[in-house]
Specification:
Elements lengths: L1 H44 L7 H15 L1 E2 L4 E4 L2 H9 L8 E6 L2 E2 L2 E2 L2 H16 L5 E6 L3 H4 L5 H4 L10 E7 L2 E7 L6 H8 L10 E3 L2 H10 L6 E6 L12 H17 L5 E6 L4 H5 L4 H4 L10 E6 L8 E4 L7 H9 L3
Parallel strand pairs: 2-6, 3-6, 9-11, 10-11
Antiparallel strand pairs: 1-2, 3-7, 4-5, 7-8, 10-12, 12-13
Helix pairs in contact: 2-3, 4-7, 9-12
Protein backbone atom coordinates (compact mmCIF):
# COMPACT_ATOMS: atom_id res chain seq x y z
CA UNK A 1 0.00 0.00 0.00
CA UNK A 2 2.70 2.29 0.88
CA UNK A 3 4.52 1.69 -2.38
CA UNK A 4 1.39 2.00 -4.38
CA UNK A 5 0.45 5.16 -2.55
CA UNK A 6 3.92 6.50 -3.17
CA UNK A 7 3.74 5.67 -6.86
CA UNK A 8 0.36 7.28 -7.24
CA UNK A 9 1.53 10.45 -5.47
CA UNK A 10 4.64 10.70 -7.63
CA UNK A 11 2.58 10.38 -10.78
CA UNK A 12 0.24 13.16 -9.69
CA UNK A 13 3.18 15.34 -8.73
CA UNK A 14 4.78 14.73 -12.10
CA UNK A 15 1.57 15.71 -13.85
CA UNK A 16 1.24 18.94 -11.89
CA UNK A 17 4.86 19.89 -12.62
CA UNK A 18 4.33 19.49 -16.35
CA UNK A 19 1.23 21.63 -16.22
CA UNK A 20 3.05 24.24 -14.15
CA UNK A 21 5.88 24.38 -16.65
CA UNK A 22 3.31 24.87 -19.40
CA UNK A 23 1.74 27.75 -17.47
CA UNK A 24 5.07 29.46 -16.91
CA UNK A 25 6.04 29.02 -20.55
CA UNK A 26 2.78 30.58 -21.73
CA UNK A 27 3.16 33.43 -19.26
CA UNK A 28 6.67 34.18 -20.47
CA UNK A 29 5.53 34.03 -24.07
CA UNK A 30 2.67 36.42 -23.34
CA UNK A 31 4.96 38.80 -21.45
CA UNK A 32 7.52 38.80 -24.26
CA UNK A 33 4.81 39.48 -26.82
CA UNK A 34 3.36 42.37 -24.84
CA UNK A 35 6.83 43.83 -24.18
CA UNK A 36 7.70 43.62 -27.86
CA UNK A 37 4.44 45.28 -28.91
CA UNK A 38 4.90 47.98 -26.26
CA UNK A 39 8.41 48.68 -27.46
CA UNK A 40 7.27 48.78 -31.06
CA UNK A 41 4.40 51.09 -30.17
CA UNK A 42 6.66 53.41 -28.16
CA UNK A 43 9.04 53.77 -31.07
CA UNK A 44 6.26 54.83 -33.38
CA UNK A 45 4.21 56.94 -31.00
CA UNK A 46 7.08 58.81 -29.32
CA UNK A 47 9.73 59.49 -31.97
CA UNK A 48 12.86 61.35 -30.89
CA UNK A 49 14.22 63.71 -33.51
CA UNK A 50 17.63 65.38 -33.20
CA UNK A 51 17.40 68.83 -34.78
CA UNK A 52 19.86 69.57 -37.55
CA UNK A 53 21.93 72.73 -37.78
CA UNK A 54 19.49 74.00 -40.40
CA UNK A 55 16.57 73.35 -38.04
CA UNK A 56 18.25 75.32 -35.26
CA UNK A 57 19.14 78.16 -37.61
CA UNK A 58 15.55 78.29 -38.87
CA UNK A 59 14.26 78.48 -35.29
CA UNK A 60 16.68 81.31 -34.56
CA UNK A 61 15.54 83.20 -37.66
CA UNK A 62 11.92 82.87 -36.55
CA UNK A 63 12.95 84.13 -33.12
CA UNK A 64 14.82 87.03 -34.73
CA UNK A 65 11.72 88.16 -36.60
CA UNK A 66 9.85 88.22 -33.29
CA UNK A 67 12.38 90.29 -31.32
CA UNK A 68 14.26 92.48 -33.83
CA UNK A 69 13.84 96.22 -33.29
CA UNK A 70 14.88 99.08 -35.57
CA UNK A 71 16.12 102.03 -33.54
CA UNK A 72 16.95 104.57 -36.20
CA UNK A 73 18.70 104.58 -39.54
CA UNK A 74 21.04 101.59 -39.83
CA UNK A 75 20.66 100.85 -36.14
CA UNK A 76 19.12 97.65 -34.82
CA UNK A 77 18.55 95.93 -31.50
CA UNK A 78 18.12 92.32 -30.36
CA UNK A 79 17.75 91.07 -26.78
CA UNK A 80 19.82 87.89 -26.79
CA UNK A 81 22.68 85.85 -28.22
CA UNK A 82 20.64 83.60 -30.53
CA UNK A 83 18.95 86.55 -32.23
CA UNK A 84 22.31 88.32 -32.61
CA UNK A 85 23.86 85.37 -34.42
CA UNK A 86 20.79 84.97 -36.62
CA UNK A 87 20.96 88.66 -37.55
CA UNK A 88 24.68 88.56 -38.35
CA UNK A 89 24.33 85.46 -40.53
CA UNK A 90 22.25 87.43 -43.02
CA UNK A 91 24.38 90.62 -43.04
CA UNK A 92 25.84 91.63 -46.41
CA UNK A 93 29.08 93.51 -45.74
CA UNK A 94 29.04 94.88 -49.28
CA UNK A 95 26.33 97.25 -48.07
CA UNK A 96 28.66 98.82 -45.51
CA UNK A 97 30.52 98.06 -42.30
CA UNK A 98 28.63 96.41 -39.46
CA UNK A 99 29.47 96.93 -35.81
CA UNK A 100 28.12 95.12 -32.76
CA UNK A 101 27.57 96.99 -29.51
CA UNK A 102 27.17 94.70 -26.50
CA UNK A 103 25.39 96.34 -23.59
CA UNK A 104 23.51 95.38 -20.46
CA UNK A 105 19.75 95.08 -20.40
CA UNK A 106 17.74 98.06 -19.21
CA UNK A 107 15.83 98.60 -15.98
CA UNK A 108 13.19 101.33 -16.11
CA UNK A 109 14.72 102.70 -19.29
CA UNK A 110 18.32 102.79 -18.04
CA UNK A 111 21.21 100.35 -18.36
CA UNK A 112 21.90 98.55 -15.10
CA UNK A 113 25.61 98.59 -16.04
CA UNK A 114 26.99 102.01 -15.10
CA UNK A 115 29.80 101.82 -17.68
CA UNK A 116 27.19 101.14 -20.36
CA UNK A 117 25.18 104.14 -19.23
CA UNK A 118 28.27 106.37 -19.42
CA UNK A 119 29.13 105.08 -22.89
CA UNK A 120 25.71 105.67 -24.43
CA UNK A 121 26.02 109.37 -25.30
CA UNK A 122 29.64 109.31 -26.55
CA UNK A 123 28.76 106.30 -28.69
CA UNK A 124 25.62 107.92 -30.10
CA UNK A 125 27.58 111.07 -30.93
CA UNK A 126 30.36 109.11 -32.62
CA UNK A 127 27.86 107.11 -34.65
CA UNK A 128 26.28 110.36 -35.84
CA UNK A 129 29.71 111.42 -37.16
CA UNK A 130 30.44 108.06 -38.79
CA UNK A 131 30.20 107.41 -42.54
CA UNK A 132 26.53 107.16 -43.58
CA UNK A 133 26.68 103.46 -44.47
CA UNK A 134 27.86 102.49 -40.97
CA UNK A 135 25.48 100.01 -39.35
CA UNK A 136 25.20 98.98 -35.71
CA UNK A 137 23.53 96.04 -34.02
CA UNK A 138 23.05 96.59 -30.30
CA UNK A 139 22.77 93.37 -28.33
CA UNK A 140 21.68 92.95 -24.73
CA UNK A 141 23.79 90.53 -22.69
CA UNK A 142 20.96 90.21 -20.18
CA UNK A 143 20.28 90.96 -16.55
CA UNK A 144 23.11 90.92 -13.97
CA UNK A 145 22.59 87.25 -13.10
CA UNK A 146 22.70 86.35 -16.81
CA UNK A 147 25.84 88.34 -17.53
CA UNK A 148 27.65 87.12 -14.40
CA UNK A 149 27.02 83.49 -15.33
CA UNK A 150 30.36 81.97 -16.38
CA UNK A 151 28.53 79.99 -19.06
CA UNK A 152 26.91 83.04 -20.62
CA UNK A 153 27.35 82.53 -24.40
CA UNK A 154 28.65 86.08 -24.81
CA UNK A 155 31.59 84.97 -22.67
CA UNK A 156 32.08 81.43 -23.95
CA UNK A 157 31.13 81.39 -27.64
CA UNK A 158 33.67 82.46 -30.25
CA UNK A 159 31.31 84.92 -31.97
CA UNK A 160 31.84 87.64 -29.34
CA UNK A 161 33.95 86.11 -26.55
CA UNK A 162 34.05 89.16 -24.27
CA UNK A 163 34.71 89.65 -20.56
CA UNK A 164 33.62 93.22 -20.05
CA UNK A 165 30.77 95.49 -21.11
CA UNK A 166 30.19 97.74 -22.86
CA UNK A 167 32.01 96.20 -25.79
CA UNK A 168 32.15 97.35 -29.40
CA UNK A 169 33.24 94.95 -32.13
CA UNK A 170 33.54 95.15 -35.88
CA UNK A 171 31.81 92.32 -37.71
CA UNK A 172 34.02 90.59 -40.29
CA UNK A 173 31.57 87.99 -41.62
CA UNK A 174 31.20 84.27 -40.89
CA UNK A 175 30.43 85.09 -37.25
CA UNK A 176 33.93 86.55 -36.75
CA UNK A 177 34.66 89.88 -35.08
CA UNK A 178 37.61 92.24 -34.66
CA UNK A 179 38.57 95.70 -33.38
CA UNK A 180 37.48 95.20 -29.77
CA UNK A 181 36.81 98.42 -27.87
CA UNK A 182 35.76 97.73 -24.29
CA UNK A 183 34.66 99.43 -21.07
CA UNK A 184 36.00 102.98 -20.65
CA UNK A 185 37.42 103.01 -24.17
CA UNK A 186 33.85 103.17 -25.54
CA UNK A 187 33.59 106.67 -24.04
CA UNK A 188 36.59 108.02 -25.99
CA UNK A 189 35.38 110.11 -28.98
CA UNK A 190 38.63 110.04 -30.96
CA UNK A 191 39.06 106.32 -30.49
CA UNK A 192 35.48 105.73 -31.64
CA UNK A 193 36.09 107.94 -34.68
CA UNK A 194 39.16 105.83 -35.43
CA UNK A 195 37.14 102.61 -35.20
CA UNK A 196 34.29 103.92 -37.35
CA UNK A 197 36.71 105.32 -39.93
CA UNK A 198 35.46 108.88 -39.40
CA UNK A 199 38.92 110.34 -38.90
CA UNK A 200 41.79 108.13 -39.89
CA UNK A 201 45.34 109.29 -39.09
CA UNK A 202 48.14 108.51 -41.48
CA UNK A 203 48.43 104.75 -41.05
CA UNK A 204 51.68 103.51 -39.58
CA UNK A 205 51.23 99.76 -39.40
CA UNK A 206 53.45 98.12 -36.80
CA UNK A 207 56.30 95.83 -37.67
CA UNK A 208 55.50 92.27 -36.53
CA UNK A 209 58.10 90.14 -34.75
CA UNK A 210 57.35 86.57 -33.69
CA UNK A 211 60.57 85.26 -32.16
CA UNK A 212 62.85 86.32 -29.34
CA UNK A 213 65.92 86.00 -31.54
CA UNK A 214 64.43 88.34 -34.13
CA UNK A 215 63.49 90.83 -31.43
CA UNK A 216 66.97 90.76 -29.88
CA UNK A 217 68.60 91.22 -33.28
CA UNK A 218 66.29 94.14 -34.07
CA UNK A 219 67.07 95.89 -30.77
CA UNK A 220 70.80 95.28 -31.21
CA UNK A 221 70.74 96.80 -34.70
CA UNK A 222 68.72 99.80 -33.51
CA UNK A 223 70.92 102.92 -33.42
CA UNK A 224 68.70 105.17 -31.33
CA UNK A 225 67.97 107.53 -34.22
CA UNK A 226 64.17 107.36 -33.89
CA UNK A 227 61.64 106.66 -31.10
CA UNK A 228 61.16 102.89 -30.81
CA UNK A 229 58.22 101.27 -29.02
CA UNK A 230 57.78 97.54 -28.46
CA UNK A 231 54.31 96.16 -27.73
CA UNK A 232 54.48 92.62 -26.36
CA UNK A 233 51.25 90.77 -26.97
CA UNK A 234 49.73 87.36 -27.61
CA UNK A 235 49.04 85.50 -30.81
CA UNK A 236 45.56 84.99 -32.20
CA UNK A 237 42.96 82.50 -31.05
CA UNK A 238 42.30 80.27 -34.10
CA UNK A 239 38.60 80.02 -33.20
CA UNK A 240 37.88 83.73 -32.81
CA UNK A 241 40.59 85.34 -34.93
CA UNK A 242 41.23 87.73 -32.03
CA UNK A 243 44.07 87.70 -29.51
CA UNK A 244 43.87 84.77 -27.09
CA UNK A 245 44.99 87.00 -24.20
CA UNK A 246 41.83 88.97 -23.26
CA UNK A 247 43.82 91.85 -21.77
CA UNK A 248 45.90 92.10 -24.95
CA UNK A 249 42.70 92.03 -26.98
CA UNK A 250 41.37 95.02 -25.04
CA UNK A 251 44.63 97.01 -25.19
CA UNK A 252 45.64 96.27 -28.78
CA UNK A 253 43.52 98.79 -30.66
CA UNK A 254 44.05 101.69 -28.20
CA UNK A 255 47.82 101.16 -28.35
CA UNK A 256 47.73 101.31 -32.15
CA UNK A 257 45.44 104.35 -32.19
CA UNK A 258 47.31 106.45 -29.64
CA UNK A 259 50.63 105.58 -31.23
CA UNK A 260 49.38 106.83 -34.59
CA UNK A 261 47.91 110.03 -33.14
CA UNK A 262 50.48 110.92 -30.46
CA UNK A 263 53.90 109.48 -31.32
CA UNK A 264 56.38 111.49 -33.42
CA UNK A 265 56.13 110.94 -37.16
CA UNK A 266 59.43 109.09 -37.32
CA UNK A 267 58.53 106.72 -34.46
CA UNK A 268 58.30 102.96 -34.97
CA UNK A 269 55.91 100.59 -33.22
CA UNK A 270 56.92 96.93 -33.16
CA UNK A 271 54.32 94.35 -32.26
CA UNK A 272 56.07 91.41 -30.60
CA UNK A 273 54.04 88.19 -30.45
CA UNK A 274 55.32 86.18 -27.48
CA UNK A 275 53.28 82.97 -27.93
CA UNK A 276 50.48 81.47 -29.98
CA UNK A 277 48.77 79.96 -26.92
CA UNK A 278 48.46 80.47 -23.18
CA UNK A 279 50.35 77.24 -22.52
CA UNK A 280 53.27 78.31 -24.71
CA UNK A 281 53.44 81.65 -22.92
CA UNK A 282 53.42 80.10 -19.43
CA UNK A 283 56.12 77.60 -20.39
CA UNK A 284 59.24 78.46 -18.37
CA UNK A 285 61.29 77.75 -21.49
CA UNK A 286 59.53 80.41 -23.52
CA UNK A 287 62.43 82.32 -25.16
CA UNK A 288 60.94 85.70 -24.26
CA UNK A 289 61.05 84.74 -20.58
CA UNK A 290 64.66 83.59 -20.81
CA UNK A 291 66.09 86.77 -22.36
CA UNK A 292 66.93 89.80 -20.21
CA UNK A 293 67.43 92.63 -22.71
CA UNK A 294 63.75 93.57 -22.49
CA UNK A 295 62.16 91.90 -19.49
CA UNK A 296 58.60 90.72 -20.10
CA UNK A 297 56.85 89.40 -17.01
CA UNK A 298 53.28 89.74 -18.27
CA UNK A 299 51.31 90.68 -21.35
CA UNK A 300 50.37 93.12 -22.63
CA UNK A 301 53.60 95.04 -22.01
CA UNK A 302 54.53 98.29 -23.74
CA UNK A 303 58.08 99.65 -23.58
CA UNK A 304 60.15 102.40 -25.14
CA UNK A 305 63.69 101.55 -26.21
CA UNK A 306 66.35 104.22 -26.58
CA UNK A 307 70.10 104.54 -27.07
CA UNK A 308 72.22 107.62 -26.44
CA UNK A 309 74.82 106.31 -28.88
CA UNK A 310 74.43 103.65 -31.58
CA UNK A 311 76.85 101.32 -29.79
CA UNK A 312 75.31 101.75 -26.33
CA UNK A 313 73.30 99.08 -24.57
CA UNK A 314 69.59 99.78 -24.96
CA UNK A 315 67.73 101.67 -22.27
CA UNK A 316 64.22 100.29 -21.70
CA UNK A 317 61.35 102.18 -20.08
CA UNK A 318 58.08 100.36 -19.43
CA UNK A 319 54.63 101.90 -19.55
CA UNK A 320 53.22 101.26 -16.07
CA UNK A 321 49.79 102.98 -15.79
CA UNK A 322 46.61 101.24 -16.85
CA UNK A 323 45.99 101.28 -20.58
CA UNK A 324 42.58 102.79 -19.83
CA UNK A 325 44.47 105.92 -18.71
CA UNK A 326 44.56 107.31 -22.21
CA UNK A 327 46.16 110.60 -21.19
CA UNK A 328 49.09 108.72 -19.68
CA UNK A 329 49.27 106.55 -22.79
CA UNK A 330 49.41 109.58 -25.07
CA UNK A 331 52.07 111.18 -22.88
CA UNK A 332 54.15 108.01 -23.02
CA UNK A 333 54.15 108.12 -26.82
CA UNK A 334 54.80 111.86 -26.96
CA UNK A 335 57.55 112.14 -24.35
CA UNK A 336 61.17 112.43 -25.34
CA UNK A 337 63.42 109.61 -24.25
Amino acid sequence: MTKEGGTSSATASSGMSTFRVFQITMALLLFSTVAYIAKFTTVWTSPVFKPTADDVQFEHMVHLQEVLETRGKNRFFVPDFEAAEAFLRQVDLKEGPMFVLLMSSEVNGSYWCSDCARAKQPFDDALARAPPNTRVLEVSVGAPRDWNDDYNPFRTKSTFHIRKIPALLKYEGNLKTSHLVSEQFVTKPKLLDFVFGTKIPTPRPPKIIRSADEMLAFVKAYKGDYPLFLSFTSGANPHTGRLWCPFCDIADLPIQHYFETAAPENAQLVRVVVADSYGAWKDSNNPFRRQFVVRVAAIPTLVRVSKAQPTDEPSVREYLPLFEDTKALQTFFQAKS
